[in-house]
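For the sake of transparency, this paper describes our internal protein records without simplification. The record that follows is passed on verbatim for readers who wish to inspect the format:
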Amino acid sequence: MMDNIYLILVFILFMLAISDLVVGVANDAVNFLNSAVGSKAASYRTILFIASIGIFLGATFSTGMMEVARNGIFNPQYFYFKEIMIIFIAVMITDVILLDAFNSLGLPTSTTVSLVSELMGAAVAVSIYKIATSNPHIIDNGIERLATIGDYINTAKSLGIITGILSSVVIAFTTGVIIQFIIRTIFTFNYEPKLKYMGSLLGGVAITTITYFLLIKGAKDAVFMSPEAKAWIKENSGLIIAYSIIAWTILLQILTWLFRINILKMVVLTGTFALAMAFAGNDLVNFIGVPIAGFSSYEIFSATPNADATTLLMTGMAADKSVTVPSYMLFIAGAVMVLTLWFSKKAKNVTKTELSLSRQNEGEERFGSSFLARNLVRSVLRLTNTAERVLPKRVYAFLASRFDGTEAEAKRKAQGHEAPHFDMLRATVNLVTSSMLIALATSHKLPLSTTYVTFMVAMGSSLADRSWGRESAVYRITGVLSVIGGWFFTAFSAFTGAFVFAMLINWLGWSAVIGLLALAIYFVYHTHVLNKRKQAREATVDSFEIEEVNGEILPEKIFDRCKVNVIDVLKGVSDLYHRSLTSFEDEDRRALKQITKEVAELNANTKQMRHNIYPTVRKLQEGSIDSGLFYVQVIDYLRESAHCLTYISTPCFEHLDNNHKVFMPEQFEDLNELKANISDFFEQTMAMIGQNNFKELDNLQHLQGQLMEHMRLLRKKQLKRIKKEKAGTRMSLLYLNILHETQNMLLHVGNLLKAQRDFVKFQS
């Protein structure tokens, strides 16, 4: 019976491994996709196809060596079989929850760091429980003594991995800055003419670096690589690099003369393939290494006659130094990874974060401002001013001219939504630098995270390329700091989660596994729901964008889209205003809390519409300035109308949340009458805009005046209540605030209506 339980646990480990593969690829896709996607070196489907080939080859050719699970994060020879299974179950459940949460937030993290931290956390938990309950002894140099946590955990290996990862962050960022600065100084933003006579050399060096990276990092554990071949590559690295540079340079120059190939596009797509193959070949252990280790443990347990899971030490795991994944498992893993790459929306979400932080053009920023980012920007500005004074004017002018991207920016703006986030020269630097650093570290057996390296190189190159201008620097730096902070949080969360889960399984037995699996399913489902809502919000925002025709936005398109947007937002404002006051009267705190979230989403949408003003007006036809003026006015009034809701719903929620008294019946009576009149005003407004018929505008303005007068009388009545001490301070302030914000909302809607009328008049 007990054998069946452990067999079921092994099955659960593999089911979790499939889930882990899905969330892991969604996280790590950012490593090998962003350079090609950001530079638009090819269509998205072509890039995915090339990356898919790299992933599948990397997965199926890999031997799948379980480096992290086997090489000493903990010492398995001191753990019993049952304890090993507790560690592995806790690790896999934590990993699925953690990676899925980060993917839903759109933050790239390191699967290696998460796995190491989880193995450490679960092993520490089991070790503490073991020491506290059984007082274990071990034989050390022939002497029996009490066991300590240090006996169970390989702290030197773990600290080495963590130190290598942290140092790689600084090195990758610095290297990215330096190399991008040098390359951009040589080629400038207008690099196409220089590629005719320098492109083949640049391509030769780039593809050589990528090829060497592929040999050292991507294919070092491939089944087709014999020990002799690996040794030969290691011994002749210098010759391989030298001959490869010469051969690729000559070949690319010939291809350029004969077929006019785009060398940078070739480099970017080659680099994408190489990084994808290396990712699948080496990081596969992060997803299936633990289940394979669990399966190996079960095989040892099953092969031992009359074995007891609570007394059988896993010395066989420590002795086995060549645990290999069966080929069919590698094939399945590769297929799952490829399917995830094509169909995972969370992979696109993670990719968006890095692209938004490294893009050359302006736009809405995904992150806000922070104290540290603002001070860093001020420090850099002071340093720049100092450099301008210290450097000779000719040198400073020369460098400024090399980074003058005015012409390139004009071309990018002309492309509109089709414009790449950055050019292929920077994409080449990102790929080559990442490949170089990863290959260098791997050849010296230094641990690092491919996620950290590729991300920080991309951030360094974008900084050197002056993508972080004064308009966006604080937001980009805040974003980078948020991602880096998320990395530290990954390690802490992974350690803590695995520690807690392992302790729970120790205390409650295997029944706790069922509860933890249910918790994992709930978290994955919950983040899936949140991700769908986020995508729905983004789809709503995208629907506010105005269609272009032959690179230009026609005035009638602005008019049509503007009318639809205005009606949609006004419907939301009217509905949320009505629900806010109704929920407050019912003292429904939960409903009001939800309303505040919906108000925030509505404001986010109107904010995005406002962000679209600049690119929209910029692409308008020359004779359509009036259209742009009306567009700006309508969007501004719409934004302010929606913003008034924030100052109604939030104070109402806070009032209920603090358990204050609600209004008196006579106050609600007055507000309900006002609420009905406001709804009627909105209905007439939306009908007028929808029909493009403003003949009754004077009557509607008269209704607006009556409502203003009515609110003045309500305000006067409330002041009398205050004087007679019939209403408390908080109640009075909230009541007056609602009247004030309602009045502001009506004023903005009235102004919006007049702007829309003028817009229609202009169109006709």
